[in-house]
Fold each of these.
Amino acid sequence: MDKSIIVKNVTKKYKLFNKTSERILDLISPKSYGEDFYALRNVNFEAVKGDVVGFVGINGSGKSTLSNIIAGIVPETSGSVKLNGQASLIAVSSGLKGELSGRDNIELKCLMLGFTKKEIKEMEPHIIEFAELEHFIDQPVKSYSSGMKSRLGFSISVTIDPDILIIDEALSVGDKAFAEKSLQKMKEFKEQGKTMIFVSHSIGQMKDFCEKILWLEYGTVREYGSVDEVLPNYENFLKKFKKMSKEEKNEYRESVLKRNENLVNA
């Protein structure tokens, strides 16, 4: 089967600085300043055309970082990402300019994706109608609620008809009716055989929509497989994790990070 996403040994490292002077010194001095923080370490997974892959993991596990890297918004520090087709990321306010109106954002985003002004004029009414923003489309996006931003971003992304769709918590804001309409549109894409990445805290949506699950734990892949294989394990983990005290959660996080570092250095 045709592979649409190949993620190979992807690592994303950030530098954490306590003060601005450390950041400047790190740039100009041969000595390293600041603390290395690994959002992702040696992540590997593949998806074939038509796969719907859910990303799960507690906060801070790297789901959004990996989504942004696959979408080409954030560069990986090392490793590689190969896509077979055009990817589009749907996240709250992703790629939207607050000073511009909703209509101007539609034109800007579509121009950046290579559409002509004529094509954009043809798509614009469909985007506005799907987003349900007729009365607000000429207002600056900075005045929009998070739900309105999400609706606009979702509408642009589904209208441009990408090969690979990445939905990062975009259905967690706004009203239930729009979320249901969006899920229906995603199901249409699924029937068309498009590849989709779905990031959500809703286990119910994962069960209803996804076929495979990538479970990330503090930047590394803990499990990757079918929904029936991985999701029950993740649900059992969540039950135990939620019962932990704050101290126990911190201890668990440190033990996982230490284990990950030992695996990389082995």
Note: Strands lie at 3-16, 35-48, 52-56, 78-83, 87-91, 164-168, 195-199, 212-217, 220-226.
Amino acid sequence: MFVRDKIEDDLRQEEKLVTLEEFWNWYPDGYEGRFELHNGVIVKVQPTGTHERVAGFLASKLSVYIDRFNLPLFIPRQGLIKAMNTDKSAYIPDVMVLDNDSVKNNEPMWKKRSTITKGSTVKLAIEVVSTNWQDDYLMKLGEYEKLGVEEYWIIDYLGLGGRRYIGTPKQATISIYHLVEEEYTLDLFQGQDVIKSPLFPELNLTAEQIFQVGQ
């Protein structure tokens, strides 16, 4: 298809660094794909079917929780988080939980561009780890902390992350980072551990229940 060929040609232009405005204008309408902007470079995100099942499972559980407790939150199908102090990076979490009022009152780019600029609007960002695990544990972790994203989960259902992040021996691990005085605290969950989220304290899910979706 012409659209697909054009996208692949555009992605090969590695020397051309683009701004967020250029990225928005380039982003292909109707194309079934996901793209992020990393320091001016357009990066194609190609999740596996299993990856999507894990993300979908978590989104469905959180949606039920939000409805049950009538929380002023929602989960968009897709949206960008603009990095802090730059117009050359923006990320698409696998799952994102947003504050309703903040989206309406504090996010001028949301209606037209589906883009969040203030970390306080993002109550939770979830990344499901793929082979490029460094993006989740290094780049996005640092950016979300700087922005002030209240909670960040890394779902490493294949145990791909570095040992300094998930321990030895490497195994499937869920890392939950929660913002306290502008810095992330960390709790790790494996096996039959019941995950503990300050934002969703009654979620009642074990790490293994999540990992089984990815098997």
Note: The two ends are 33 Å apart (CA to CA).
Amino acid sequence: MLGRTIIIHSLEHAVAALRAARELGCAVTLASPPGAAAYTGALWFREVVKEAAREVPEAEFTAVLDCGDKPGLVMAAFRQGVRSVRFTGGKVQREKLEALAEQEGYHLITDSLDSLDLAEEGDLATACHAWLAAP
């Protein structure tokens, strides 16, 4: 991971997080909400992240799509070009996905993410700055 994690729900959220990271000179991880791969899809997430990167090209970031406990969503995300995913499923499935991720150069995250969720934040810029600047 490159820096603190911010959960995004829209392009506006992603851009706010990247702008704050750029202004503070730090890296940030853009993460989808828990289980988002099931309802937003990997393509939506991938395109939101791409567009945010176009709008704030100087920002250093990684992006993680949360696939919950669904191994099929992990596989679909990898096929659709999402390089980093979070998986919360069982040990047997996790071990198989970890082997695949290592072999193919993907990143599988199985730990919880300490994060700021922008869903309830009114002032996105202030929230992102405060979160990223905190010790």
Note: Residues 8 and 118 are 6 Å apart (CA to CA).
Amino acid sequence: MQWTSIVAIYFLIWVMTAFVLLPFGVRTHEEAGEPLIPGQADSAPANFRPGRLVLRATVIAALLTALYVANYVRGWVGIEAVDVTTWFD
């Protein structure tokens, strides 16, 4: 596998991981006990920390990419393991 493929796979996994992590650990102003700014949506986050999100997404994406590359090299799970046409024979 070429290193450019690994970088592309890492980027895709990173974006998906970041979107999955977005709702975790975020509280609204009502939950945090802070006053709303006039015109602000009730559901707006009060404690959004993009740095922490980036760090978590980076670590998780690195682990998942390493697992993917290891599976690619070692061949632990192949297409025959996920071939649903043979499950019902």
Note: The chain has one domain: 3-86.
